[in-house]
Amino acid sequence: MQWTIDAAGARDLDRRITESGVQEFCLMMRASKVAADHLLRNKPTSVVCLAGSGNNGGDAYGVAAHLLLSGIPTTVVALAEPTGAAQKARGFYRDLGGTVFSDLDQVSDTDWIVDGVLGTGCNRAPEGIISVAISWICARRVAGSSVLSLDLPSGLNASTGLAYQPSVVADLTVSFLAPKTGLLTGDGPSLCGRVQFETLKPWDVGDYECHTRLIGHDTIDVPEHPQTAHKGTRGSVLVVGGRHGMEGAGQLSALASLRAGSGKVFWATDSFLFEVPEIVRVEWGIETILECAKRVSAIVIGPGLGHDAGEVIAALWALDKPLVVDADALNWLSENPLPDRDAPWIGTPHPKEASRLTGAPMADRFHLLDRLENVYATTWILKGAGTLVSGEPVWLNPVSDPTLGTAGSGDVLAGIVASLWAQGSTSPASTGVWLHAQAFLAAKKLSGPGVIASDAVNQIGSVRTA
Q1: How far is CA 422 from CA 86, 114, 265, 411, 414, in A?
Q2: Which among 150, 229, 287, 316 has the fewest CB atoms less than 10 Å away?
Q3: What is the distance between the alpha carbons of residues 19 and 12, in angstroms, rounded to a whole number?
Q4: How confident is the model at residue 228 (pLDDT cuts 50, 70, 90)?
Q5: What contacts 140, CB < 8 A, 6 or more positions away?
Q6: How confident is the model at residue 356 (pLDDT cuts 50, 70, 90)?
Q7: What is the pLDDT of residue 243?
Q8: Cis peptide before 189 (omega within 30 of 0)
């Protein structure tokens, strides 16, 4: 799994597979068989399948047929008249003696519900009977039924991960042909439950366009150092922030830079609280900060910076040095736009910060990323579930976990990215996102769900060399 497709890509892939000689009904039966097999592993005692009019509904009829063949009491509620290959699937189910209801009130309590209401084409809030059906599924799940969604939960945008209201919350999602972007970013990870990807091969259509490329161990560039390396050869980082009352942000960022491999890390702060012997403190003031900034390999500005450091931000912006801009520095930039920077820089906003910078709503993460690139043509890391990194195509981090959203997590990320950059990584943004996520997952294994940012900092070194 190295890439994802969006709704348009899913339609195109469907078309190309059928044009290659695989009949649409055959593909539908493959999908329904693997979905039924996944459901059977959960030992259902009774199943209700909700079927829309399109291929997703056809998959639901197919699942129902395979379940009947396995001896599982199964009924189908038809929300609309099926079209295309879905008509054949309904005929197959009926030929096996299956019952098709037209009213949700006709079905009784059930162990499992199969969601075949909407497919990848959902691009607006469900209405009418579709909205009623999705709400019914949600209510039955609250009452104790489990839910399997076919391809993706109904109500979820396959391209953006935006969940319209209402949307299905699934316990298991079986996605077909190729991973859909919306499963892995935005609201998707909170709606899909456990996700199983099924290619339904054999089929071969050659290369086809992907929507995002997934960040993984085989795509990253973590610099390696020779046995003779020392602090002077492994890059240096200056962290500007963590001022009085917000020292933790600066310390976390600086420590993350050290743990990620930087030889020397400096911390510019006006705080007298200084408890980390490995970090070199820099006195707060433009002249001293600039003097240090000119000597280091990369700079982080923003974590715990406060709202009165505009003069420092502008001075560092003008330097010919790699710059990671985070938190308070991004908020200042949204109110005090600066001209494009000649030297490279990486912005690391969360969705609210990105919305401030662009004036765009937070709902569509890909539109938000496009707007960020229109404001400043640079590399952006749009944080949140399924973190996005600008590129052609966009990079997507498939790891979504609540521990990644803990206090101080963004400070750690900024420090990691700057450290990798200082050491010569060719992809500090995407590699930093990967290393950050893996460090938090490693910390969770040791500490459980109550992970704090410093737990993850302590795991960076072991993950880096894994």
Answers
A1: 56, 50, 10, 17, 12
A2: 287
A3: 10
A4: very high
A5: 109, 110, 113, 147
A6: very high
A7: 95
A8: no
Whether pTM exceeds 0.90: yes
Rounded CA gap, 102 and 429, in Å? 51
Residue 1 clears pLDDT 70, i.e. is over it? no
pLDDT of residue 465: 80
**235 and 423 in contact (C-beta within 8 Å)?**
yes
Domains, the chain, ordered by start = 3-209 (3.40.50.10260), 236-464 (3.40.1190.20)
Decide: residue 256, CB within 10 A, 0-12 exposed, 13-18 middle, 19+ buried.
buried
Give the pair of three-digit tokens for residue 96: 């096996």
- Give the containing element (helix H, strand E) for 113: strand 112-116
Sign of CA pseudo-dihedral 10, 12, 15, 20: negative
Distance CA(310)–CA(431), nearest Å, equals: 29
Token pair for 16: 């190309």
Give the strand pairing for 280-283 and 345-347: unpaired
Identity (one letter) of the amino acid at 157? Answer: N
